[in-house]
């Protein structure tokens, strides 16, 4: 600093010059008035809006232009730098500057002809086009317009910037920015522009075009990209066709990102594979095929390699050049096969390994490296024992070995060592052939699934797990009682799955205050005795499934206290006695599925009972269930969108209430003894796709309101006593003769019998129609059971009917 080597000296001797001499590192140049004016005019095009820079990655948003004042030296303005000699503006950094507004296609800004660095990233230019005038900065070495909501074609004039070293036009973030809403392809690069860029930008070192639509580009046009390139990022660019393998041979490339171009094909070159400088190679979610050549393991610096979600096949190369620096290796979701080579287990710096969903077989070798954080080897054909070295991986946070053919036992040793683990979020061994007892488990596991193995013995080993959130022990041969500890050892347990074991004994009063369970699955064990009301301590319980046990109890009315309960399945137990309606109209508001079938319960049917359960009737198809159980629930919900009560002896009328089953897709009431009119309320079942009322004794006309059922594709009212004209129009024009035959009084298309006034008259009322729809005839009673059954998931037909095949409404 101007000869003052010691700050102390400066402070002592020139304190009153300090602002002049010590705070200005360089001599200040006045910027020329016309440059100042150009910048100031530029500023006025935009308003300042924090939202415009909400996705800033590397710095905090700062409205730099607010400090720009007319008549002051623009070289001192925030974000502006001038040339030391000429005073011309050479650098403008307005990234993350909260600029919001349309970017003008022509403005004095483009006259800043000495500009070398221009950074406008992370603003919101409201889908403005990128002006061709951006090609008018001949000295430009750095251009960054990324994440600033430009749209349209990238102008080929960018290729005029032949001194460019960095070109950043990405708008799709490669990392998951919280709250970033990736737009669809809004920027597009055409062939001509790409060709010109490749040809003219001979000095370019960094090109980032993530998210730009390059679907019309022949990847071969990238073949002559500058040898100076160190970074090329074309993530999610809709590239299609074959990638020239020269890309892998660029001599200086360090960062190569071509992932998420699902129509991009290619194979790896067998030799001269990429520069020795290559540090990161992302090729996941493409359509690469063929084998992984042994030369791939050459780049000594490689630290990230993602080849997942391609069509790669064959064995992994079995060569000695391991990866000294590799930290992340993802080969999942390919067609790779064979045994895994030994180098895979010795990569010294590996933190993340994912080989899931391939066809690997053979044993999993022992891991030599102790740094591993994540190991995913699921969905292959690995055999043999669980490698004992995992107990040495103290930083491990997830281990997924599920869906293999691993056998052997979970050794006590493995878990006693795992006590050292800091935390283990995913420990997944489901669907293997693991045998033996469950040893005492360490406290620091949050997720444990050993489902679908051959484990035996009692569950006492789980009592330690203070932080467990999801515990899946289903589909094993565990026996003994449900340990008393289970209700109290973890306040974090949200899902407990004990389905399909051999647990027996009574479910004692185990659930303590503060129980956090959302899902409790006791399905298919040998549990007996009453169901413990201590379950009401689990205030957040959403799913309670105790089906297929021997629980002997009266109807658990206390479930009314479980206000979050959505699914209650007590089917096939020994519940007995009456079910009465909920006492409080506000309880069980979220209940959607109840299956109480195969018990000895009965429903006394108070008059307004149906109304209490109306809320169950309109099943919301897209409802989300407890995490991890969605699929099972969706299955159930799908079944619940149709009712088949055909081939029973239901009598009476179809009640108006049926219209309230508005989520129903299919209704089959055929082959019963139903009488009366087809209720016009059917028009409210707006999702109905098939409706079969055939072979009953229905009378009256077909309500024209059924024309509203726009999804109806199958309709059958044959073999009834219907009269009058068949509704005309819409989907009714598609139904054929067979839908209507066997009704002497029907007329009109498609029947050959035309309509005339004689048959259009009201039919004479039948003797049994004197009663009002609602006055509780036999038939009405029958229907109420149907509606409740629908809500309750009763299986109809098991005990009644004419012996024809039925799908039922249950699960
Ligand atoms: C301007 O001056 C500063 C300080 O003397 C120096 O570090 C910088 O390199 C100079 N810039 C140019 C473009 O000459
Ligand atoms: C800032 O931008 C957001 C999003 O475009 C908009 O909703 C909001 O009204 C703007 N705020 C101001 C003060 O203009
Ligand atoms: C941009 O404006 C300048 C004057 O401000 C004018 O000379 C030039 O022709 C304009 N260019 C375009 C492409 O409109
Ligand atoms: C600014 O004015 C000078 C002379 O006054 C001229 O040479 C230069 O081209 C002008 N620059 C701009 C950006 O208009
Ligand atoms: C390359 O850029 C220069 C300007 O720097 C321009 O004159 C020339 O037309 C460009 N060439 C191509 C092939 O785009
Ligand atoms: C690449 O450069 C070579 C040599 O200059 C040329 O023959 C070839 O046509 C170029 N390829 C493409 C696709 O531009
Ligand atoms: C690999 O590179 C070397 C040296 O650059 C060269 O001699 C050799 O021909 C190249 N091999 C292939 C197959 O391209
Ligand atoms: C595991 O399976 C292999 C056959 O794949 C068998 O030879 C071995 O004995 C089994 N080990 C145990 C402990 O069951
Ligand atoms: C159990 O694992 C076998 C393969 O080992 C698999 O086929 C089956 O679907 C799995 N069953 C369940 C319920 O996950
Ligand atoms: C249910 O338990 C009662 C006694 O609590 C007993 O009398 C009855 O037989 C049991 N029912 C069944 C089906 O086991
Ligand atoms: C209704 O049920 C009957 C008897 O089970 C069956 O024959 C008919 O195909 C079913 N109708 C529809 C539309 O599925
Ligand atoms: C159809 O539903 C609406 C609204 O729920 C109701 O007002 C109307 O009465 C229903 N129509 C029939 C015919 O039941």
UniProtKB/TrEMBL annotation:
SMART domains: LRR_TYP (SM00369). SUPFAM superfamilies: L domain-like. It is a single-pass type I membrane protein. It comes from the Eukaryota. It holds the Pfam family LRR_8. Residues 1-22 form the signal peptide. This is Leucine-rich repeat-containing N-terminal plant-type domain-containing protein. It is found in: Cell membrane. Belongs to the RLP family. InterPro entries: Leu-rich_rpt (IPR001611), Leu-rich_rpt_typical-subtyp (IPR003591), LRR_dom_sf (IPR032675), LRR_N_plant-typ (IPR013210), RLP23-like (IPR046956). Keywords: Cell membrane, Glycoprotein, Leucine-rich repeat, Membrane, Receptor, Repeat, Signal, Transmembrane, Transmembrane helix. GO terms for cellular component: plasma membrane. The chain crosses the membrane at residues 781-805.
């Amino acid at each position: 600093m101007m000869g003052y080597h010691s700050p102390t000296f400066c402070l002592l001797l020139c304190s009153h010059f300090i602002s002049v001499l010590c705070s200005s590192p360089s001599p200040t140049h006045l910027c020329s008035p016309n440059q100042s004016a150009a910048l100031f005019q530029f500023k006025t095009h935009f308003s300042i809006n924090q939202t415009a820079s909400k996705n800033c990655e590397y710095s905090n948003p700062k409205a730099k232009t607010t400090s720009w004042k007319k008549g002051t030296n623009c070289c001192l303005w925030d974000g502006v730098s001038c040339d030391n000699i000429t005073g011309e503006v050479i650098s403008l950094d307005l990234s993350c500057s909260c600029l919001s507004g349309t970017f003008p296609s022509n403005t004095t800004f483009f006259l800043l002809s000495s500009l070398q660095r221009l950074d406008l990233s992370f603003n919101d230019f409201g889908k403005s086009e990128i002006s061709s005038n951006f090609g008018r900065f001949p000295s430009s070495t750095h251009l960054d317009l990324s994440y600033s909501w430009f749209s349209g074609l990238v102008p080929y004039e960018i290729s005029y910037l032949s001194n460019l070293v960095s070109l950043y036009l990405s708008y799709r973030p490669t990392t998951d920015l919280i709250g970033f809403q990736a737009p669809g392809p809004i920027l597009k690069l055409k062939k001509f522009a790409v060709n010109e860029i490749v040809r003219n930008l001979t000095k370019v070192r960094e090109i980032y075009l993530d998210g730009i639509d390059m679907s019309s580009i022949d990847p071969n046009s990238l073949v002559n990209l500058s040898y100076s390139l160190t970074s090329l990022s074309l993530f999610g660019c809709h590239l299609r066709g074959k990638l020239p393998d020269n890309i892998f041979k660029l001599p200086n490339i360090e960062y190569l990102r071509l992932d998420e171009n699902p129509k991009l094909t290619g194979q790896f070159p067998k030799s001269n594979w990429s520069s020795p400088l290559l540090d990161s190679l992302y090729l996941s979610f493409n359509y690469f095929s063929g084998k992984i050549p042994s030369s791939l393991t050459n780049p000594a610096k490689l630290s990230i390699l993602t080849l997942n979600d391609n069509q790669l096949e064959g064995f992994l190369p079995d060569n000695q050049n391991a990866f000294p620096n590799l930290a992340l290796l993802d080969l999942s979701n390919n067609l790779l096969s064979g045994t895994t080579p030994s180098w895979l287990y010795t990569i010294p710096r590996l933190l993340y390994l994912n080989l899931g969903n391939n066809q690997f077989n053979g044993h999993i070798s022992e891991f030599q490296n102790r740094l591993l954080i994540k190991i995913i080897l699921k969905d292959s054909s690995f055999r043999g024992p669980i490698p004992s070295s995992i107990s040495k991986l103290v930083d491990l946070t997830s281990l997924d070995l599920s869906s293999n053919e691993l056998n052997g036992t979970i050794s006590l040793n493995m878990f006693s060592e795992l006590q050292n683990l800091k935390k283990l979020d995913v420990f997944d061994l489901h669907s293997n052939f693991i045998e033996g007892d469950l040893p005492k488990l360490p406290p620091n596991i949050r997720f444990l699934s050993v489902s679908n193995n051959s484990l035996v013995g009692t569950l006492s080993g789980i009592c330690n797990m203070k932080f467990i959130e999801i515990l899946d022990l289903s589909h094993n041969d565990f026996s003994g009682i449900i340990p008393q500890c289970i209700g109290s050892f973890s306040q974090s347990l949200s899902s407990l799955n004990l389905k399909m074991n051999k647990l027996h004994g009574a479910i004692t009063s185990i659930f303590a205050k503060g129980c956090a369970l959302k899902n409790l699955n006791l399905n298919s064990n040998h549990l007996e005795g009453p169901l413990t009301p201590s379950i009401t301590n689990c205030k957040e319980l959403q799913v309670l499934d105790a089906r297929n046990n021997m629980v002997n109890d009266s109807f658990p009315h206390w479930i009314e206290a479980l206000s979050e309960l959505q699914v209650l399945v007590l089917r096939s137990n020994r519940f007995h006695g009456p079910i009465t309606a909920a006492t409080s109209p506000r309880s069980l508001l979220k209940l959607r599925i109840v299956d109480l079938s195969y018990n000895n319960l009965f429903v006394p049917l108070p008059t307004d009972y149906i109304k209490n359960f109306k809320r169950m009737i309109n099943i919301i198809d897209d409802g989300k269930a407890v995490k991890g159980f969605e699929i099972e629930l969706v299955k159930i919900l799908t079944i619940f969108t149709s009712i088949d009560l055909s081939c029973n002896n239901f009598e009476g009328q179809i009640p108006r209430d049926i219209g309230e089953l508005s989520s129903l897709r299919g209704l089959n009431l055929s082959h019963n003894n139903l009488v009366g009119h087809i209720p016009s309320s059917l028009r409210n079942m707006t999702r109905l796709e098939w409706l079969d009322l055939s072979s009953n004794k229905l009378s009256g006309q077909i309500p024209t309101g059924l024309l509203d059922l726009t999804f109806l594709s199958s309709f059958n009212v044959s073999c009834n006593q219907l009269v009058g004209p068949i509704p005309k129009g819409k989907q009714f024009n598609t139904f054929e003769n067979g839908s209507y035959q066997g009704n002497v009084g029907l007329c009109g298309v498609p029947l050959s019998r035309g309509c005339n006034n004689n048959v259009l008259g009201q039919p004479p009322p039948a003797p049994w129609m004197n009663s009002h729809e609602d006055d509780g005839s036999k038939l009405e009673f029958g229907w109420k059971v149907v509606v409740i059954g629908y809500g309750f998931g009763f299986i109809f037909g098991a005990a009644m009917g004419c012996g024809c095949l039925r799908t039922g409404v249950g699960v």
